[in-house]
Amino acid sequence: MPETTVVRAFRENNLMLFRSAMLGLPERRYPCVLMSESATELVRQLEHARALHESRAATPELAARLDRLAAWQSRRLGATYVDLARQPRYANAIAFFQSDLYGPGDYSRRDADLARVVPLMARALPEALIGAVARAMELSVLSQELDRLMLAHLDPAAPLSVEVYCDAYRGLANREQRERQIGLIVEVGGALDRHIARSWVGAALAAMRHPARAAGFGALQSFLERGAAAFREMHGATEFLATIQVRETALMNAIFAGERTPFAEPAPSRWP
Asked: pLDDT confidence of 270, banded at 50, 70, 90?
């Protein structure tokens, strides 16, 4: 499927072309979809994500190194927020962040599912919710790009430790990007918290479950259900997000200030 066909489908706001290019359906007449600013930004982020997924898939060594780093960072996250993870209110949210946002693995299927439903989202969802999804994709893309930059400063043959990690982190001298990453976590989390609190979101996800899986959107549906459940169980994410902002900002400042051990070594894992 040529990239130019998909890009042209989005730029021309043409649902018919999108469906024929992405889903392989016979050409029929479909209404044009007016792509809002948020939907257009979502498409742009999805295109970036697709390029990252393709380079990962083409380079097994890169994929292995990314997974190693992601697993280490996920364990660091778990250690930093172990107090929240012990509270039933926040346990699933911490697990969701570790597994679905910062954990190792290939998320290309989830993002491809999302790309396929953008025209439907543009027609059916509020602009604010589409904007939240676009910011979530920006966070995902930024995190992947930061991990790749980190790999350039890490010896693939050397063990990963707090000191080694902090030296590489500091060596990138990209405070603005790190601040943006933290800001997006809080922004996206706050937006999801507001929308998921609305009763129709849970009802819509439940109604979509079987049709989505039957249509091949299982990866996206599962991701959405886990995220919605995690935020719903918090009964308000303000305290959770404020804690993340304070702790992550403090760690960032400590690393850029020259501290080499601002947190303890994460527990070992099965990743080499």
From this structure: low
